[in-house]
Amino acid sequence: MPSNEFIRNAGACLATTNVLERRGQVRWMVRENSQDPADNGWRIMSHIDTEEYLNSDGCWRIVDFNDVCELEPALIEMWPLPVGSDLQLVRDEAGTRIVDTASGRQVIPEPPKSGPIRRTRTRAAAPGPHPYEIAKREDAIASETCSTFDAIPGWDLALVTATFASNASAPTTTCQLFNVGHDEPDLERWFGTGSLPPGMPLVNEPQLSPELVNHIAAHREAMPDDQGRMWSTMLLAVQRQDSFYFFACRYR
C-alpha cells in the first residue's frame, strides 16, 4: 500500500524515472488500454522526457498511481478520466491546471458550466502546430535559458524578450535576471506593458547566446497562423525553484 492512499484501488501506472527521481516536473499524461488487470492505463511523463529517452531501456517503471499523486497532487482528480485522454499539466502565474493537449481545453479544474470561460493566454493562437509540439519547443527554450545563465549567481527569475523586425534580420533580444526570492512578481504587468514593479532586484543583463537566438528564430518559423503570418515578439518568463523551473510565454 502506498504511504498516502488518495484513491482506493487506484491501480498501477507507468511513470518515467525522471518523474519518480524528481529530475523533471510532471508534464504529460496519457491513458492507454490496460495491459494487466492491475494496470489503470495511465502513462506519466516529465517535461524533460524526449522521444529518444521514452524509447530507451530503463525509462519506465511500474508504480502505484497514489505514489505518483504524492509527487504531484494535481493528478488526483485526473484518475477517472477515460482511456484515450491525452493531457498536459500547466503551471504559470495563473495557477496549476490540466488541459487537453490537442485542443488546449482546460479539463481540471473543470471550467464553470455557465457564463464565460476565462482562458489564460499561454501562447499565440497558432492553429497549425500541434500544442504538444509548441509546448516542447517552449520548454526547450526555457530549459536552455536556465542552462545558459546557470553560472551567474543569485538570480531566480529571467525575463527574455526577442523582437523580429523582419523575416530576414536577426531579432533584437534582451534578458534581465532578477532575484525575487519568495515574492510573487507581477508578470502579467510585464507581459502587458513591459514594465515591472519598482524595487525588483536586478542581478544581471546578459546577452543571449547565438544558439539560443537561433532556437527562438526556429520556434518562430514553426508557428505561423492560419494566414501564414508569424508573431513579431516573444516574451518569456522563467522562474527557478530548487531543481525545477516554471515558465510562461506570450507572443505579439
Strand order of the largest sheet: 4-1-3-2-5-6-7
Quaternary structure: single chain
**What's the alpha carbon Rg, rounded to whole Å?**
19 Å
Question: What low-confidence regions span 5 or more consecutive residues with pLDDT below 50?
Answer: 113-128
- The strand count comes to 12
Based on helices, strands and strand pairing, what is the structural class? alpha+beta
What coarse outline follows from CA principal-axis ratios? globular
* Largest sheet composition: 7 strands, mixed
Residue fraction in strands: 25-35%
Q: SSE string, helix = H, strand = E?
A: EHEEHEHEEEHEEHEHEE
Residue-averaged pLDDT: 83
* Measured distance between first and last alpha carbons: 50 Å
Helix percent reads 10-25%
Individual helix count: 6
Structure, described:
The protein is of the alpha+beta class. It has six helices and twelve strands. A seven-stranded mixed sheet has the order 4-1-3-2-5-6-7. A five-stranded antiparallel sheet has the order 10-9-8-11-12, covered by helices on one side. The relative contact order is 0.13.
In short:
By secondary structure, the protein is of the alpha+beta class.
